[in-house]
Structure of YdcF family protein:
Amino acid sequence: MSQGVPVPEHQQRQITDEQFHDATLIWNYHQMGHELRPCSAAIGLGSHDLGVATAAADLYRAGLFPVVVFSGGNSPTTRARFPRGEAVHYREHALSLGVPDDAILVEPKAANTGQNITFARELLSEVGIAVESLLLISKPYMERRSYVTCRKLWPEADVVCASEPLELDDYIKSIGDEKLVVDMLVGDLQRVIEYPKRGFAVEQDVPGDVHDAYERLLGAGFDSRLIST
């Protein structure tokens, strides 16, 4: 499971039931619901969430890919948690879960999702791995953003998205901060909406109820993870 900093139960409830309902709408929208199938390779997208590496280990053992690229350097939010870099810590965690070293490639420089995909693609090409289908492994609420980014940058690849199979409640408990998780859900949805305008991703339809939930949460101050527009 994802790992965060434990927070006492009495400190965790920071949102109302209505806000949790809105967050759940956005959480469900972020997940692509793809049927998993064997792919040529996988990319584990770097982040603060070690659950990405846990999911990669589970999916490797299920026979869904022969090699995974863990991609990611550091960011202000991960430097303290992963001082040797996101991809390096992901690799170490996957090895501890039984993934063989020869099934792991490390890309240690990427600083955003576009670079995760671009640099991982270059690395797979350098080592001679032909990719027709690609399993993108991310945080649960990042599936859609990783998908739309990959469709823009690697359109010829058949993309399947995966993440740890967690409900929103379980993910909040693993991170230990309700407000922060909702901020991240809102921030990722803003990127899904805005990044196509910047040429970073393909367009996605946002259902009306999801967009309304987004606007309500923005109005309530769940905005610490927004980008400037």
In short: Residues 145 and 191 are 7 Å apart (CA to CA).
